[in-house]
Amino acid sequence: MTDFNEARERMVERQIVRRGIRDPQVLAAMRVVPREAFVPDYVRDLAYEDRPLPIGNEQTISQPAIVATMIEAAELQPGDIVLDVGTGSGYAAAVAAAIAAHVYSIERHAELVATARDILARLNISNVTVHLGDATTGLAEHAPYDAIIAAAGGPHIPAAWRNQLAIGGRIVMPVGRELHYQRLVKLVRRGEDDYRSSSLGEVSFVPLVGADAWPGPDAAQCDAGGTVGTMDTGGTGGTGGADDRRPCPMSAGAHASRHRLLAVA
């Protein structure tokens, strides 16, 4: 039988600390949140492997290192109000909630919303509230946010998130014009209309689907790259621009490879 406490400590030391994560609050949160509680029983013994894992609805729980990287980049502090985009099973929200005052998390899959709420309740994590809806519109009723952390990649940062970010707030999000390969971007709001961005490295996440991101899948025929439609190739970088491609269904194995860190800048 797996000793999950030992496996969790080994994960922190080998996968998190060795990758340069130093924030003591992040390391403490990663040590206390039981990742095995957030995955299906059939992959529970793999909970502390250095990889994403499937959680249903063609979604994955992120690789532990990318969760730690994003939360460290968000510079969370006690008292912060956080918007977590792409709840999944609730793991990243739980890690953030071990540091921040409250995490509002939004997920578009009703089944995952129910699963996350159940797991968080069983773990007595009371400072995470999970909402069902289009994450690209944010949650204006709880704004402004000190940090917004997104576990899905879009062609640009949604306008609503910028507007709902507090002055001094941070957005950490995978951004790119390729559906499944992005740059992890950190955006800091310095003033009312003053935003500064930096790149943290290459990542691979499932697409952010919504009104201000990628359109949802439809019945059209997918191309070999897992997309439908055509792409406007003008420009570089993934900070905006038109893109008519839509994410199409992927195999379970393909989805399980998402939510991972490819390189650090």
TrEMBL record:
This entry's Enzyme Commission designation comes to 2.1.1.77
Of which family is this protein a member?
Answer: Belongs to the methyltransferase superfamily. L-isoaspartyl/D-aspartyl protein methyltransferase family.
Q: Which InterPro entries does this UniProt record tie to the protein?
A: PCMT (IPR000682), SAM-dependent_MTases_sf (IPR029063)
Q: Which domain of life is it from?
A: Bacteria
* HAMAP family named among the record's database cross-references: PIMT
Q: Does the keyword Cytoplasm apply?
A: yes
Q: Where is the composition biased (Gly residues)?
A: 226-241
Region labeled Disordered — which residues? 222-257
Q: Where is the active site?
A: S62
Q: What is this protein called?
A: Protein-L-isoaspartate O-methyltransferase
- Enumerate the Pfam families for this protein: PCMT (PF01135)
Q: What does this protein do?
A: Catalyzes the methyl esterification of L-isoaspartyl residues in peptides and proteins that result from spontaneous decomposition of normal L-aspartyl and L-asparaginyl residues. It plays a role in the repair and/or degradation of damaged proteins.
Q: Which reaction does it catalyse?
A: [protein]-L-isoaspartate + S-adenosyl-L-methionine = [protein]-L-isoaspartate alpha-methyl ester + S-adenosyl-L-homocysteine
GO: which molecular function terms?
Answer: protein-L-isoaspartate (D-aspartate) O-methyltransferase activity
Where is the protein found, in the record's own terms? Answer: Cytoplasm
| Any one GO BP annotation for this protein | methylation
Instruction: Report which residue ranges the record marks as coiled coil.
Output: none
Report keywords, A-Z.
Cytoplasm, Methyltransferase, S-adenosyl-L-methionine, Transferase
Q: What is the lineage of its organism?
A: Bacteria, Pseudomonadati, Pseudomonadota, Betaproteobacteria, Burkholderiales
Recorded hits in CDD domains, A to Z, give:
AdoMet_MTases
